[in-house]
Design brief:
Elements: H1 14-25, H2 29-42, E1 47-53, E2 59-64, H3 104-111, E3 113-119, E4 126-132, E5 135-136, E6 140-142, E7 147-153, H4 160-165, H5 169-184, E8 191-196, E9 199-204, H6 210-218, E10 226-233, E11 236-243, E12 255-259, E13 262-264, H7 267-276, E14 289-294, E15 300-301, E16 312-313, H8 316-333, H9 337-340, H10 363-376, E17 378-379, E18 409-411, H11 423-428, E19 444-448, E20 452-458, E21 464-470, H12 471-489, E22 494-504, H13 507-522, E23 526-531, E24 534-541, H14 549-563, H15 569-584, H16 594-609, E25 620-624, H17 625-631
Parallel strand pairs: 1-8, 12-14, 17-18
Antiparallel strand pairs: 1-2, 2-7, 3-4, 3-7, 4-5, 4-6, 8-9, 10-11, 11-14, 12-13, 15-16, 18-19, 19-20, 20-21, 21-25, 22-24, 23-24
Helix pairs in contact: 1-3, 2-5, 7-8, 12-15, 12-16, 13-14
The protein binds adenosine-5'-diphosphate and magnesium ion.
Length: 635
């Protein structure tokens, strides 16, 4: 064993304490920018100018028009643990400011040269202070406007090792820019500018219109494609914008979540956001969103991580649900419904609508397709009958630009036979819902955008309606009902897998798995320990034959850990069936064969009859002939 030389225990001198703290607070130029801009916001600034030289290596200058610091208190701002923002322990649980630790200025001043010029409105002139080598100069009077200017030069000159870790100027500046977005997005009332090496890179004028700020910050083309979110429930407010599904990107880079105007990262909330877009975007793509969550500060603890982007909620599942509901309701409210059921007015261009993420056609090509539909309505060529549920996994990926000749346009001699509703069933049916169960005369349908099925539904008396169906939503709902119905009759018979599918698991996942095992068994999924670090799926329901058992279990465990153990048995079952049916359902953007569409329509009545609808989203929109006549002003 090597000889340990024991040194006496001693209190660290202040400058060392600061340097150690700086290691947590100041990682790179963008962290200095963050701290200084947050101080400016806390000081009530309405204008903040950021000037950067050489990626922040040589100069970071932040000028604000906030309250300023009284001359006699200015030196204190640089002391360790000196803050004007909290006074006692209770304040810690009701933080209303961005800062509160009182260590930013002390830390920054320990790793670079700092000059501060500040003036309050009560004072005729300002003061200037300098810190070099952790030594504070005596304050000198200085001409200054009300507010504060802080200049930080030669970052990390005292810690060469850290300086070495800095990346290229362009990369560091990129981080600074991202930091600006994180503070500017939730604060449209504050004007910001950002300059690099003498060039103005971003200018964000103050605005009362949050949409304008988001568009200026993330891309002007977004302006008209953002759906406004307003949600309030049980003390949680969610506001901001959700991008239209068609805007979805490959990365989650454009997902900004703010808690009481503070940028946060939270796996579970990102998941809630993604969940809200389920069925509307490709599973791998990511929506764009800027969501402001506001909660009583007593309901969470922001003090988890020095960079403060992680939070601990008292009731995480409530916040999860709020984000999911807020976003989903926004998307829902933007469904085709308002267009279909419009009054007699023409409201100008249609409001933002659901668009399939894959194809967005210009109005002229849409017209062409509709014209083709009516021209080509010819009897269907016989096609091999596919079993239901329709296979999903083996489909060819459709080309991004839809070939109009591929649209399914067929005339059916007769819709697949549907049992007439029994007495008790028909009592549940609203007259409009009976259309598909009465025998239609010449029903025709077409799949549009590989996503929607538009069907003609005559009522047998010369009238009728046009039904627009979201193929994914309908299929998902049918599968859900079917699984639910079968499970309530008794455990489902699982199909034994030839080779069990093995999944590595963590101890936490094992614990989560235990809570759902009985439910899985009822669903026909048998999971057993494989070895100390993995489990194996032995049986899987044939209804879900297109779903990978391993993937299903992995996602289920992820979800269980995210939602926590607070779910009731009923909610758990809902989550389970929801996940199973979503995974097995045909996705938006997939071409369906004639028979598949027919099978889907045939099963439609199952969900129409079910009294409790498991999901919020509609599967079907109906436009009656009298609606049309009103639209065309015939009525
Ligand atoms: P904290 O922000 O956690 O209080 P800081 O070290 O960042 O700690 O700042 C210390 C104190 O200096 C703040 O509490 C505030 O009173 C004052 N201060 C810092 N920057 C500004 C500013 N731009 N305008 C007004 N006061 C400021
Ligand atoms: Mg601060």
């Amino acid at each position: 064993m090597s000889q340990v030389v024991r040194k006496p225990i001693a209190l660290l001198p202040d400058h060392l304490v600061n340097k150690i703290a700086a290691g947590e607070v100041v990682e790179r130029p963008s962290s200095v920018v963050k701290e200084l801009v947050e101080n400016a916001i806390d000081a009530g600034a309405t204008r903040i100018d950021i000037t950067i030289e050489d990626g922040g290596r040589t100069l970071i200058k932040i000028a604000d028009n906030g309250s300023g610091i009284p001359a006699d208190q200015a030196p204190l701002a640089f002391a360790q643990h000196a803050t004007s923002k909290i006074q006692n322990a209770d304040d810690l649980f009701a933080i209303g400011t961005m800062g509160f630790r009182g260590e930013a200025l002390a830390s920054i001043a320990s790793v670079c040269h700092v000059t501060m010029t500040t003036r309050t409105a009560d004072e005729p002139q300002g003061v200037r202070l300098e810190v070099h080598d952790s030594k504070l100069s005596a304050p000198r009077p200085a001409a200054a406007a009300v507010g504060t200017i802080i200049e930080a030069r030669d970052l990390f000159y005292t810690v060469p090792a850290r300086r070495k870790f800095l990346r290229t100027d362009a990369t560091e500046f990129g981080h600074v820019h991202e930091m600006l977005l994180r503070v500017a997005l939730p604060n449209p009332q504050i004007a910001f500018t950002l300059s690099h090496n003498g060039r103005l890179v971003q200018e964000l004028p103050a605005t009362t219109d949050h949409r304008v700020r988001v568009a200026e910050a993330l891309g002007k083309e977004l302006h008209d494609q953002l759906l406004a979110v307003h949600f309030e429930e049980r003390g949680i407010t969610v506001s901001g914008f959700a991008g239209q599904p068609a805007l979805a990107r490959a990365t989650a880079k454009y997902q900004y979540l703010f808690l009481n105007r503070r940028y946060i990262r939270d796996r579970s909330l990102f998941h809630a956001l993604k969940e809200a877009y389920r069925g509307l975007i490709e599973p791998q793509s990511q929506p764009i969103a800027v969501l402001l969550i506001d909660i009583d500060p007593a309901q969470f603890d922001i003090n988890v991580h020095p960079q403060k982007t992680e939070v601990r909620f008292r009731d995480a599942s409530n916040v999860y649900r709020a984000v999911l509901a807020a976003t989903r309701e926004t998307l829902l409210a933007t469904d085709l419904t308002p267009q279909v059921k419009t009054s007699n007015r023409f409201d100008g261009p249609p409001p933002a609508t659901f668009a399939p993420s894959r194809t967005v056609d210009s109005p002229s090509t849409t017209h062409q397709k509709i014209a083709d539909f009516f021209k080509q309505a010819t009897p269907a060529a016989p096609q091999p009958r596919l079993s239901f549920p329709a296979p999903v996994g083996e489909r060819p990926t459709p080309s991004p630009i839809e070939d109009p000749s591929r649209i399914t346009v067929r005339q059916l001699p007769e819709l697949p036979k549907v049992d007439p509703p029994t007495e008790s069933e028909s009592r549940h049916l609203a007259p409009a819902d009976r259309t598909l169960t009465t025998k239609p005369e010449t029903p025709r349908f077409v799949q549009l955008f590989n996503t929607y099925i538009v069907a003609e539904t005559p009522d047998g008396h010369g009238g009728g309606s046009i039904t627009i169906i979201d193929q994914h939503a309908l299929h998902e709902r049918i599968l859900y009902e079917e699984l639910f119905a079968r499970m309530s009759r008794g455990p489902l018979e699982g199909q034994r897998l030839l080779i069990p599918e093995v999944l590595p698991v963590t101890p936490k996942q094992v614990a989560a798995l235990e809570t759902v095992k009985p439910m899985l068994t009822n669903l026909g999924i048998e999971v057993a320990d494989f070895d100390a670090h993995s489990v194996a799926v032995h049986t899987f329901p044939s209804l879900l034959s297109k779903v990978s058992p391993r993937e299903f279990l992995r996602d289920l465990l992820d979800k269980l850990l995210e939602l926590g153990s607070k779910l009731t048995a009923e909610e758990l079952l809902h989550e389970l069936l929801d996940m199973a049916s979503c995974k097995a359902a045909v996705k938006a953007g997939y071409p369906l064969s004639h028979d598949e569409i027919a099978a889907l329509l045939e099963r439609k009545h199952q969900v129409e009859r079910s009294s409790n609808c498991p999901h919020g989203r509609p599967t079907t929109l109906r436009l009656t002939i009298s609606d049309l006549e009103r639209q065309f002003k015939r009525k």
